[in-house]
Amino acid sequence: MTDTSNPDALPDHVRVLVVGAGFAGLAVTERMLRDDPAADILVIERAADVGGTWRDNTYPGCACDVPTALYSFSFAPSPDWNHTFARQPEIHAYLRKVAADKGIRDRVLTGCELLEASWDNGSALWRVRTSLGGLTAQALVAATGALSTPRLPDVPGIGNFTGAMFHSATWDHDYDLTGKRVAVIGTGASAVQFVPEIADRVDRLTVFQRTPTWVMPRGDRALTRLEKRLYRRIPLTQKIVRAAVYTCREGYVLAMAKAPRVLPVFQLLAKAHLRRQVPDRALRHKLTPTFTITCKRILLSNDWLRTLARDDVDLVDSGLSEVTEGGVVDGAGRETLVDAIIFATGFTPTEPPVAHQLRGRDGRTLAQHWSGSPRAYLGTTVAGFPNLFLMYGPNTNLGHSSIVYMLEAQSAYINGALAHLAAGAGAAVEVHPAAQARYNERIADQLHGTVWNTGGCSSWYLDKDGHNSVMWPTFTFRYRSRTKRFDSENYQTRRTVQESVA
C-alpha cells in the first residue's frame, strides 16, 4: 500500500502505478478511487505539480480551442469558468482543484520521472525504474499524453544560433521580447495564439510557414455573472449546456467522416474570414490552403490573420532551411537576422517517448513493437504487454470534440479490467493479438474515405507509413459504448505467477 502520509516516499510495490498527472492521469485515478477510496494507487509525475500540458504551456495567449463546457470532467463541473473557451491559467487551476477535491493529490508523487518499466514474466509484475528509485506494480497506466514532448525541426545549424531560442511549450518568460527581431517557426495552434499577443511588443516579426491552415473565427466570450450564478444554484443547467455543446460537436463527424462533400461549405466560411482580415490578395494567396478543410486541425482565431497582415510582420512561405549564428535562412536561401527564435513546431504524438521506456513480455520496447506505426486495442491495451493500459493511445484523438470525453471512457474501461483482476480472474490480462488485429482493421476501414485520410494534407495524424494511427473515425458515443464493459473474452488471462499466458 502506498504511504500517503509521506508524499515523498516511493513504495516497494503498488497495485496500480499511473504515470502522469495531467487530464488523463487525473481521470483514471479518480475513476478508480470513486469505486475504492482505499485503492492502492500511486501517480508519479516528473514535474513539480499536476496539470500536464496545461501546467507546461504558459506561452502568451495559451487557451483551449474546445468549448470549456465540454473540455472539463463530467464528474467535476465548475461554475467558475470565465470564458466559453478557457485560458491556460484557469484550466491549470481547475485541474489542481480537481486533484485536491477528489483526493488524488495525496496519491501523486511529484519530481518522480519514469525511466524504464519492464514486464517480469516470472512474477507477473511490472518492474519500474524512476528517478527516485525502483518499485514493482501489478498494473501500469501510461497517462503521459500526446502533447508532452516538444519537437524541434531537424535543420542545419540549429545549435549555432547565438540569440535566444525556445519552444512555445517551454516559453522563456525571463527573456524580454520588447523591441526585438523575432522569428517564429510554425503556424499551428500555438503560434496562432501567441503571435498576436507578442506582435505589439517586438520590433519586427518574421513568421515561417510550411503549409497554410484553414482558420475560422473563435466564438469566444466571457461568461456572465448570471450564467455563473445559475450554474452554481441550479447545476442541471450546466449539464444541459454541456449536453447541447456535445450534441452540436458530434454533428461535425457527419461532415468529416460520413459526408465530406459538404466540407466546401465550411471552406467558403473560412475564405470569407480570410478576406475580411487580409485585404492584400498576394498574402491571402499564401494563406489559402490547397487541402480540404478539417484534413488538418482547424485553427480558431479572431486576430491571427489580421496580425499577419500588419506592416511589421512578414510571412515567409518557403519554410526554414537553416539556422545561422545570427538568424534564419528560408527555403529560397534568404537570411533574416533576428534576436530570438521561437519554435511553434508541435509535439511527437505518433512517436510518444514513453513507448521507448516500456518493455513487454519479449523484452522489446513498445516503440520497437510499433516501429513508428502505433497500434492498440481500443487505444488502450497492446498485445505483448500484459497489465499495461494506455491513456490517449492510438486512434483516440478527435477532430471535432473533447478528448476529456474519451479519457473518461478509457478510465471506465481500465477500471473494469482492474476489477476483473481483483475479482480473482488472475494475475494479468493481455489482449489477444487476433482481437487487436481485427479491431485495427475495422478502424482502418472506417477511416478510409474520411477527410483525415483523403483531404490532401500532410498532417501529424498520419505516421511514417502513411497509416492514420491517431484519429477516432466516428461518433464518440460509440467509443464510450465499446469501453463501457471490460470485454474479458478478448483477453488472455494469466491465472498464477507460474502460468504462462495462454
Automatic annotation (TrEMBL):
Class of enzymatic activity (EC top level): oxidoreductase
Entry superkingdom: Bacteria
Signal peptide boundaries: none
Keyword Manganese: no
Pfam families the record matches: FMO-like
Molecular functions per Gene Ontology: monooxygenase activity
InterPro entries noted in UniProt: FAD-bind_Monooxygenase_sf, FAD/NAD-bd_sf, Flavin_mOase-like
Matching Gene3D superfamilies: FAD/NAD(P)-binding domain (3.50.50.60)
Keyword annotations: FAD, Flavoprotein, Monooxygenase, Oxidoreductase
Protein EC: 1.14.13.-
Family, as annotated: Belongs to the FAD-binding monooxygenase family.
Protein name per its UniProtKB record: Flavin-containing monooxygenase
